[in-house]
Amino acid sequence: MEMNRRRMLALAVAAATAPVLSACADTRQQKQAAAPVKSGAQLIDPNRPGSDAWPFEAAEQLDNSLTWPKTNVPDPASKVTITVAMTTDAVTEVRNAQFDFFFKKRHPNIEIKRESSPFDQFLTKYMTQAAGGTLPDVLYNHYSWTQNLISNQVLHPMDEYIAKTPEFDLDDIPQSGLGYFKRDGKLYGLPTDMAPKLLFYNKDLFDKAGIDYPDESWTFDKLFETAKKMTSGSGAEKIYGFSPMPTPAPDLSAVFLMPFGGRFLDAAESKVLINEPKAREAMGRWLDLLLKDKAVPSLAELQLLEKVDPFKTGHAAMLINGAWLMLELSKQTAFKWGATHVPKGPAGRFTPAVGSALVMTASSKNKDAAWIYMHEFLSSSGYKFRQITAPARQSAWDANAKAVGIPDETAKLVKEVLADYASDDGVLRLPANKKVVDTAKPIWERAMLGKISVDDALKEIADKVTPVLAENKIA
């Protein structure tokens, strides 16, 4: 598809204003289960890729034990090269190189050229390439980027290829987490990972306080009450009942406002609702927990802790975070931890289902080969080979949890949440989402510092975010 001058200009503007996202919270990358590389950059032997973390022999044995899926899309009759662009670390790159090595044995006419870029530079780099009319065949894609890329006609829909692949089994991927990648009934991205958010808690701190662990019966009222009780000490030794303080974020509605019947923005992301009564109630209660009860870290206290995560260092009793945190917690020995459902509110229980994806570019000259690669990479066997912590395919969850040391009961919990109430509803995904957050967050931080009331803060957020939402109009 030849790109006209107007489209190239739009892509150039998008590249210049592309959001820079940190790899944390809901904007995180999924890590694979491997030990850290000892030091320095790794040189990967193309004939026998491996490392201390990923020995070649073990990878070969696992690859041979898996059943790799088929598709009715034929392999190319002669050599073709596809470019695959990912954002990974040195450890994951070894595993990806192993996947490519064994993939090429199954598909000798498909050569793979791999590109890897830092997460915070990735979107800007490839939007710039798109403006110049060149892109890789397959791209990593954060859920918050997809609608922007669809609007700029960068992506090719997956539906025709899924239809040619009876073994694909779209039902194995929770439908509630696919909305980020859809437009006008077409699916443009296939998740590399998917996970809900859970309530994590420090068992040691609960045991010391003589308080029962959180469970499925908990409400937000119970969380607020317990957070106050669990708070003790001062300075660098302080224990917080909960961390961190909720702030404007893409999933603020789904985690903290919808349980009270409120929202940050409406479902169409065209109107600000955070200053309406139900959202105001939720935000006001959190602000009270900070300013009156001192049960969550203030901005100054976070600076005292040198921006380390209070929960991960044993300084907080509870937090709500993504299920991907299980891998990191399972590898630490500083304290015992547990996880359960997020609390209920007056309007019910809500949690986001979020994940990144692989997408096929509209400019790809080898779409069939790109699909064959994507299909195997995102198959149940592909997830099991790569040992992703939170695989989108539910058929890979049990095997991966066992491989990376996640407790059986926690893996079962995640699958239940994804099947029951996790959703993409309320998670910002349209093109203005980064500007919305960047506009609202400094205003809310002034409220956290006690310099502005909750009502004044929410009104100012509504006034200043409303003009930004014009960018979400989809042609």
UniProtKB/TrEMBL annotation:
- Signal peptide annotation: 1-25
Q: InterPro entries, alphabetically?
A: Bact_solute-bd_prot1, SBP, TAT_signal
Q: Which CDD domains does its entry note?
A: PBP2_TMBP_like
Sorted alphabetically, which keywords does the UniProt record give?
A: Signal, Sugar transport, Transport
Q: What PANTHER family does the record tag this protein with? A: ABC TRANSPORTER SUBSTRATE-BINDING PROTEIN, ARABINOSE-BINDING PROTEIN-RELATED
- Identify the SUPFAM superfamilies for this entry: Periplasmic binding protein-like II
- Answer whether the UniProt record assigns the keyword Transport to this protein: yes
According to UniProt, the name of this protein is Multiple sugar transport system substrate-binding protein
